[in-house]
Amino acid sequence: MNTRRTFLKNGVAVTAGLAMSTMSCSGNRKEQKKRSKKPKVISTWNHGIPANEAAWEILSNQGTALDAAEKGVMVVEADPKSTSVGYGGLPDRDGNVTLDACIMDHLGNAGSVSFLQSIKHPISVARKVMEETPHVMLVGDGALEFALSQGFQKEELLTEESKKQWEKWKVESEYMPAINSENHDTIGMICQDQDGNLSGSCTTSGAAYKMYGRVGDSPIIGAGLYVDNDHGAAVATGMGELMLKTLGSFLVVELIRQGASAQEACEAAIQRIVDKLDYKSFQVGYLAMDKAGNTGAYAIHPGFNYAEMIDGNNQLIDSRSFIK
Ligand code: SD4
Predict the structure, then answer these.
(1) Secondary structure (H, E, C), 252-298
(2) Ligand 1 proximity of 225 Cβ (cutoff 6 Å)
(3) Catalytic residues
(4) Mean pLDDT score of the chain, rounded to an integer?
(5) Short-list 250, 242, 272, CA closest to 15
């Protein structure tokens, strides 16, 4: 059996940081395990607040974690003020809004779309890929063709505001993703329903002013999102190239499976980036929930936050970070 003891014995991530985080996690582990399985939703950044509300509507009416994870992030996909997700998302350097999204349920089913254009709700197309095709991932024109065949409508996703920002950017044309700015602002969501099942979703317009055709971590199962219903789930936000190189969300869930707490696992996955990659100029944030509903979050830089909703209370929480 994989227990916390095994995790520590194997020395997977016994670091001072982990030891400290163990102390700072709320309550002791026995108490955490005793907690009843109440519906719960967590999601990245400020826009997690309205997204959680939509997810809660479903969870509090005996809905499934999968439905909640899809409907929750759709709120942000449809919001033109959220310039890093869906409609109104900042475009690539040539002015194309290209979207990435994925979804995963408690049975281990997964669906994903990438480099999808002109469709407002890529998360719903990802769900259709999961449920209606023998595949996990469709990209570009193939994803668009599939979406249209499923009844989705083509729409212009570049808003006047995003177009203005892109035109301003073109003056210098410098690709420099900013830490915690709106162009690094994927919504990742994890839901647990009344049956204790976990599902997750992740959707983004990706890094603003990326190269045409660039795909980040968000549609990649294991990088932007991973769910193992026996153990936990994780989502990622930030500079996708770093999560892709470390398969971060899978790593977080795997560490939970080996006995780490959700908090320890997020910290260890950030530590992996710090140990292996040039991390200082980039932000990455991980958010995780274990099967008992305990949550964890950790980022490279300060400024990452997430929304957590339980018992109808929705609150924003600041994540801790490697750089203080
Ligand atoms: C990406 N992780 O495409 C996404 C973008 C993002 O906050 O902005 N995340 O790399």
Answers:
(1) HHHHHHCCCCHHHHHHHHHHHHHHHCCCCCCCEEEEEEECCCCEEEE
(2) no
(3) 186
(4) 89
(5) 272
For a pocket test of ligand 1, which of 115, 204, 300 has the largest count of ligand atoms closer than 8 A to its C-beta?
A: 204
Q: How far is the CA of 38 from the centre of ligand 1 (A)?
A: 30
Q: Pick the residue whose CA is nearest to atom 10 on ligand 1.
A: 240
Q: Whose CA is nearest to atom 3 of ligand 1?
A: 206
- Joined together, the tokens standing for residue 95 give 């002015």
Residue 249 CA, ligand 1 centroid: distance in Å: 13
Q: How far apart are CA 179 and CA 304, in angstroms?
A: 9
**What confidence category does residue 8 fall into, taking pLDDT thresholds of 50, 70 and 90?**
very low
Q: What is the pLDDT of residues 10-51, one digit of tens each?
A: 444 434 344 334 333 433 444 444 444 699 999 999 999 999
* Separation between Cα atoms, residue 257 and residue 172, nearest integer Å: 46
| Under 8 Å between Cβ of 297 and 288 | yes
The CA-CA-CA angle for residues 36, 254, 251, to 5°, reads: 120
Domain ranges of the chain: 34-219+300-321
CA of 43 to the centre of ligand 1 (A): 14
Token pair, residue 49, equals: 């607040």
Q: Distance (Å, rounded) from C-alpha 288 to C-alpha 286? A: 7
Cα–ligand 1 centroid distance for 6 (angstroms): 33
Q: Which of 100, 218, 281, 304 has most ligand 1 atoms within 8 Å of CB, for mutation?
A: 218
The one-letter amino acid code at 270 reads I
Structure tokens at 206: 């990706």
- Distance (Å, whole) CA 225 – CA 24: 25
191 within 8 A of 200, measured Cβ to Cβ: yes
Give the CA dihedral 138, 144, 149, 154, nearest 10 degrees. Answer: 150
Predicted pLDDT of residue 176: 73
